[in-house]
Amino acid sequence: MRFQIVYMKRVFPLTTWANNADRAHQLAEQLRRAGYSVDVWRHTEEGSRKTDL
Question: Which DSSP state fits 46?
């Protein structure tokens, strides 16, 4: 399982990845504090799903 963090401040979305939920949550919070809007997606063998991290 991997976590995709999609963040955007203006027009173009950017992406970074994390290998566990704790790291994904940490990255998402840092980006939010810096003024980005953030979505976190969980990717597994069964598919992808947006999370509430």
Answer: T
CA distances from 45 to 1, 2, 40, 42 (A): 8, 10, 17, 10
pTM for this model (two decimals): 0.89
> From edge to edge, which strands make up the β-sheet containing 37-44?
14-18, 2-8, 37-44, 47-50
Q: Is residue 10's pLDDT more than 90?
A: no
Say how many C-beta atoms besides its own lie within 10 A of residue 8's C-beta.
14
The kind and range of the H/E element at 5 are strand 2-8
